[in-house]
UniProtKB/TrEMBL annotation:
<dbReference type="InterPro" id="IPR000160">
    <property type="entry name" value="GGDEF_dom"/>
</dbReference>
<keyword id="KW-1133">Transmembrane helix</keyword>
<keyword id="KW-0808">Transferase</keyword>
<dbReference type="InterPro" id="IPR029787">
    <property type="entry name" value="Nucleotide_cyclase"/>
</dbReference>
<protein>
    <submittedName>
        <fullName>Diguanylate cyclase domain-containing protein</fullName>
        <ecNumber>2.7.7.65</ecNumber>
    </submittedName>
</protein>
<keyword id="KW-0548">Nucleotidyltransferase</keyword>
<feature type="domain" description="GGDEF">
    <location>
        <begin position="415"/>
        <end position="548"/>
    </location>
</feature>
<keyword id="KW-0472">Membrane</keyword>
<dbReference type="GO" id="GO:0052621">
    <property type="term" value="F:diguanylate cyclase activity"/>
</dbReference>
<dbReference type="InterPro" id="IPR052163">
    <property type="entry name" value="DGC-Regulatory_Protein"/>
</dbReference>
<dbReference type="Pfam" id="PF00990">
    <property type="entry name" value="GGDEF"/>
</dbReference>
<feature type="transmembrane region" description="Helical">
    <location>
        <begin position="284"/>
        <end position="303"/>
    </location>
</feature>
<keyword id="KW-0812">Transmembrane</keyword>
<dbReference type="InterPro" id="IPR043128">
    <property type="entry name" value="Rev_trsase/Diguanyl_cyclase"/>
</dbReference>
Amino acid sequence: MLTVSIAVALTVLLHVALVSHFAQQQARKEAQLRLEQLSWQMRDSLNRVTGSAIVTVKLLSQLPQVRSYDKPEETRQVLESLQRAVADYAWIGVADADGKVRAATGRMLEGAMVDARPWFQAGLKGAHATDYHPAKLLNKLLPKSSDPWRFIDMSAPLLGNDSAVRGVVGVHMSWQWVRNRAHQLLTPALRAYGAEVLVVRADGTVLLGPGELLEKKIDTPSLRLALKGGIGSLREEGPDGKVYLTGYSRTGTTGDPTTLQWAVLVRHTEDAALAEAHALERRMIWLSVLMAVVLASGAALLARRLTRPMDALSCAIEQAIDATRAGGRPDDIPVVSGFHEAQVLSHAMRELVRSEEEHRSALETMNQQLENTVAARTADLQALLLHDSLTGLPNRRALMQTLPDAMHRAARAHKPCALLFLDMDGFKCVNDTHGHEEGDELLRQFGVRLANAVRKTDMVARLAGDEFVVVLEGLSDAQDAHEKADNLLALLRDSYALKRTRVTVGASIGVALHLPEDAHDLDAWLARADGAMYAAKRGGKNTVALAA
């Protein structure tokens, strides 16, 4: 009987040891998977924000108010409007080609020379993201903060009409947004366990992390793997001698100057990660020894009672891991029955999975809101780029995008289209006699009259000054185009009731026909229409000339 009791006790102890080992392995695997997920979630969040910022800077560089910084007040209004929309943009400024700041938010650094700053030098060459750096020129100008001012910079060149670089627009993003992302990423429970988020530069400098490591260099296996572009998790020894479970990934794209390549490490100590597993192991061993001594005859039943709940819990954990890896929503971990410890563990795992799913859902909602905001801002900026601010008509950029499509439609429909160049006759006299305000009102009414006179399928655009363009599609022949131009001319000769007077002007119209079989040569088409318009001018003005 004693031999049987000893054999049963040893068997039970061995079985408990195996179950404990498996539980620890599962706990370690789950912890590493969670840390890996947190790492790439932080990476994706950083990539989205920096990507959104570089897109904003590129669009900003295309705005007429920014490209032509000769009116600093108008330029500053655009910059400050963007800063109010995105609080993380600590400073936005426009510098000319010599490096002198011409307009900036809050007038900070206006008149200062920034030609030696990395963001300016990089922005002269193209859109660029400049890595983490302390505030220098702005340190004394910005409000005092509990954390020192640190920035990353986004810059892009400002091109003139001749495509020459005439300046740089730059955005200084406060490093506080990275601190906030890290704080949002870690739940209170993870922070209580000592989980930490580290953002490390390519040279090993810690940009975000524990205070004792901040802006100091480290060298760990996870850092080396992340900087090579790897994604995963591992067990490693940290600079402080502690053993950590670490998830790692890298932001940015190799060779892309508009992205920043940082290693993102999310870690906590192995002891904290496996504390519950170790505690469960100790309780299981003592319970098994006691039951083996007192109830040797019931050892087989006890073994079944121990293994079944753990098997069920293990299966549920593996299913949750598989569902998470597949991108789906894991089922709730069931609260297993059998013995108290298994219920405690299953309940803890159930709450952990629920917490992780709620956190992921919150991140997805936040990401969607961010994407919607970026899309709306991009649409607003795109509308500004494609329309004339005075008349509301499409501008030269919109016209140049539309003309190739018109040529393609003419080829498909086997019907010619025509390009009408209109130059207002008598506009300078109105402008000089009655002032620019009345001249602007005349331009608006002239554009409205043109737009109302053509079909919805046709296009009216303002090129510059008193020059307008009409694109007519679905024509029969050159005579059809000439007749429509004559009709427009007759309509435009009617008087215009301005704010303080009534005036009459005419127009010289050059018509260039594009036949379905003609080559798609946009420059030649524009040149023919322009030449015909000047022929109409030379022919006495207020007439229509058809290009050869």
